[in-house]
Design brief:
By secondary structure, the protein is of the alpha/beta class. 35% of the residues lie in helices and 23% in strands. It has an eight-stranded antiparallel β-sheet, covered by helices on one side.
């Protein structure tokens, strides 16, 4: 949530700040602002409610000179989106400005104290306590003031700070919110995430909690809260710059849908050697795997849906009990876990606040942590015992597609690896499954080459008010994701139901013209699914079915059928999600929605 950037160098800072913020808008986009330390040694603040473009237009005629600055793109938590609540926030004299990502949990009590000391608050934000506290603690040394600040603040923060008393300097600090330092030539940067600096440098420092960064002229010093210098290693990013650009596509989401064959190839193929799954850098031994009584899979949003799917196939193949939990529930419910349990954490960003907290809770209780992460060096990756990277490249659209697909592949790899270690199925069968796994990228490509029927179908039905997604077993799991995709980007109400539950309530919502998306790819329960489709059809539903190629029995029960290439039933989720992504995308495009930046959402949810 919220994106922050900062620049210190020799050039005017505004172009970097605006460009950097444009790369972070996926983190929040209800208002934006910048603060520049001008050549006259004043702090010039400009901010505006709305997308970054509103701010850019507002300042387009101005010449804001100054080669040090900070910027912010907001996802409102405390106080509605407005010019006043936008960041940066300043001290009452206007000589200190801060941008903040995170939530100051004890802001109310701090605010009360500051008011009693004569500080005037102008916004409703939690962040404003930071600028006033810095002013209160500042006695000539900004590092000392920041250290005192870290002692007082509770909650999460990544902060960028400029001060008129410190020309030629920029400060930053983080706790539980992501922040990186970009190391350039004669200029340096801060940013919430890598895409903001990718055009300028590939060398970054990853910061630990409560590390303070002090930029003075061309020097970057990282200090701990004892004011001792911390030697940081440079982390080199090898992403291609174009990977974070739209590359001719109208939307990032569509580009990322199209990238799925190569993304899943990158996740899987380097991990298949001589027909066996080899998990790079995973230190789990056969004995560890045999010792696990239970696996917990934890994530939020789509990552959770991957977990729900993985439960079905890991239990089926490796015969280890799996529980799947939403991170926001797990972290507060005092779960029963111990050293004989494996906790698998799934997160694209590696920074989701609830997921990170769940990881810490599980670790505290002694569980072994294996994480599936996309962003290299993120907090979740760093705090896990083992990490399996998805190598999907940067994902920018708020609605995940390629990260979801690669997380699924990573779980297939883990499931098959555990299966081999536990010897729960015969080697020949395992080989057949692994061969099929390797064919999935080309099968996803076949779907992408045949999306026209889906776009035409969406063009006819984008005015639907409610859509129900029905499926059984692994199909039900994919329904959860298909329904989420549709509702988050098209704002059409939709729900996913296990088809067997239909008669326990949901069917009362089905009436003439209700659109039902039915997934029927699972051989063993195909007939049951057909009966459920008949039940909704009888009550007037319009049925769009997805089935495996050759399974034409579904046609007489459906108004429209989309066939996925034939695959093993356990791999159907890797394919069926793709037409559902495309369907959701075209429903949203036809409705004229902002596909990449759906209202009220943000990609990286770094607050609770
Ligand atoms: C947000 C995103 C979802 C994502 C979820 C978890 O809600 O919009 O696409 O699944 O966060 O994010 P993570 O980075 O932990 O996978």
């Amino acid at each position: 949530m919220c994106g922050i950037v900062g620049y210190i160098g020799k050039k005017p800072s505004v172009p970097f700040l605006l460009n950097g913020l444009s790369k972070l808008e996926y983190r929040g986009y209800d208002s934006a602002g910048i603060a520049v330390l001008t050549d006259e040694n004043r702090i010039c603040v400009r901010k505006a409610k709305g997308r970054l473009s509103v701010l850019s237009d507002k300042i387009s005629g101005e010449n804001i000179s100054g080669s040090i600055g900070i910027g912010h793109t907001r996802w409102a938590t405390h106080g509605e989106p407005s010019d006043i609540n936008s960041h940066p926030h300043t001290s009452n004299r206007g000589d200190i400005a801060v941008v903040h990502n995170g939530i100051i949990e004890n802001y109310a009590i701090l605010k009360e104290k500051l008011i009693s000391r004569g500080y005037k608050f102008v916004s409703e934000t939690d962040t404003e306590v930071v600028s006033h506290l810095l002013d209160y603690y500042y006695k000539g040394d900004m590092i000392d003031a920041i250290i005192k600040l870290t002692e007082k603040l509770e909650g999460s923060y990544a902060l960028g700070i400029v001060s008129a008393a410190h020309p030629g300097e920029l400060f930053a600090v983080r706790k539980d919110s992501p922040l990186i330092v970009g190391i350039g030539e004669n200029e340096n940067y801060i940013a919430s995430d890598i895409p903001a600096v990718l055009e300028y440098t590939r060398d970054v420092y990853l910061l630990e909690d409560k590390e303070i960064v002090w930029f003075k002229d061309n020097q970057v010093t990282v200090l701990d809260t004892d004011k001792t210098e911390v030697k940081k290693e440079v982390f080199h990013i090898d992403w291609d710059v174009s990977a974070a650009e739209k590359g001719g596509y109208e939307h990032f989401m569509f580009k990322e849908i199209m990238e799925q064959p190569s993304a899943i190839t990158n996740t899987v193929m380097p991990r298949i050697e001589n027909g066996n799954v080899v998990l790079d850098n995973i230190t789990l031994t056969k004995e560890d795997i045999e010792r696990f009584n239970k696996i917990y899979i934890i994530g939020c949003g789509s990552a959770y849906h991957v977990g729900v799917t993985a439960k079905y196939f890991i239990e089926h193949l490796a015969r280890i009990p799996v529980d799947v939990e939403l991170a926001s529930e797990f972290r507060y419910r005092n779960p029963i876990i111990n050293k004989n349990d494996l906790v698998i954490i799934i997160s694209q960003s590696g920074e989701t606040a609830d997921t990170l907290a769940a990881l810490r809770e599980a670790k505290k209780q002694g569980a072994r942590i294996l994480s599936i992460v996309n962003v290299v060096g993120s907090s979740i990756a760093r705090e896990s015992d083992d990490v399996l990277y998805t190598w999907a490249g940067p994902e920018i659209a708020v609605a995940t597609t390629k990260a979801y697909s690669t997380q699924m592949q990573a779980l297939y790899l883990i499931g098959l690896y555990f299966t081999k270690m536990k010897g729960t199925i015969k080697d020949e069968e395992l080989t057949e499954i692994i061969n099929e796994l390797c064919s999935l990228p080309s099968k996803v490509q076949q779907i992408l080459d045949n999306m026209q029927p889906l776009s035409s179908y969406a063009a006819k039905h984008f005015n639907a008010k409610d859509v129900f997604f029905l499926g059984r077993g692994l199909d039900y799991c994919t329904c959860l994701e298909g329904s989420l995709k549709l509702k988050e980007i098209s704002y059409i109400h939709s729900e996913a139901y296990a088809a067997g539950e239909l008669k326990h309530g949901t069917i009362s919502l089905v009436e003439d013209g209700t659109l039902v998306v039915s997934l029927a790819t699972q051989g063993a329960i195909f007939d049951k699914m057909v009966s459920n489709i008949k039940e909704v059809k009888t009550r007037g539903a319009i049925v769009f079915s997805i089935a495996q190629e050759g399974n034409t029995a579904i046609e007489s029960e459906s108004d429209f059928v989309y066939y996925i290439p034939k695959t093993l039933d356990i791999f159907a989720p890797a394919l069926t999600v793709v037409p559902l992504q495309i369907f959701a995308y075209y429903m949203a495009v036809n409705k004229g929605c902002d596909v990449d930046k759906p209202r009220n959402l943000a990609k990286s949810v770094t607050v609770e």
